[in-house]
């Protein structure tokens, strides 16, 4: 691999939240443990309930994350990881990932990842620190979203109650209680 290509891949790896702040030498170790793979449009990178055997970092192209019923959940754009939680937890894949167009990824297989983590404790410590920070941020975001949605739900209930009262009740019984079940 050319030096320019290696430098470009180092920059990509350093942008992935899981590997940020591991240091240049350790980022180079991560790149060395990866393989470059190409997927044609429509190719499936992983399937629902399949073992989490690799982490992918999208370099070019585009990926779609879909349910087992084909419902689009997310679009993945370049310099984004796929499968980072599965490689850490060992849990099966929760969605199918397929290429929307010809795509190139860095693939870090589970065995190579585990080897890096065992052999280079500085990488392991920083990766775990980064993952904890990511989970903390997601938890805080989830709590904020829950609070916002709860507030919106209260306002909608108040509006419904006001409209219900204004109409003097609905004919044929009180449907108000049915909406809250």
Explain what this protein looks like in three dimensions.
It is a single chain. The termini are far apart. The chain has one domain (about 5-140): Jelly Rolls. It is elongated and about 75 Å long. The strands form 2 sheets. It has a 4-stranded antiparallel β-sheet. Strands 2-7-4-5 form a 4-stranded antiparallel β-sheet, with no helix packed on it. It contains 6 helices and 8 strands; from the N terminus they run H-H-E-E-E-E-E-E-H-E-E-H-H-H. The mean pLDDT is about 90. Helix content is about 50%, strand content about 20%. The longest helix is centred in the C-terminal third of the chain and has 47 residues, at about 120-165. By secondary structure, the chain is α+β, with helices and mostly antiparallel strands.
Order of helices and strands: HHEEEEEEHEEHHH
Helix content: 40-55%
Give the total of domains: 1
The CATH topology annotation reads as: Jelly Rolls
Calculate the mean pLDDT score and round it.
Answer: 88
| Rounded Rg | 23 Å
Beta content: 15-25%
Number of DSSP-assigned strands: 8
CATH-level-4 superfamily name: Jelly Rolls
Q: What is the second-level CATH architecture?
A: Sandwich
Secondary structure class reads alpha+beta
What's the short version?
This protein has 181 residues and is α+β, with helices and mostly antiparallel strands. It is built from six helices and eight strands; from the N terminus they run ααββββββαββααα. The protein has helices at residues 3-15, 24-33, 84-89, 110-119, 121-167, 176-179, and strands spanning 35-39, 44-46, 54-60, 63-66, 72-76, 80-82, 96-99, 103-109.
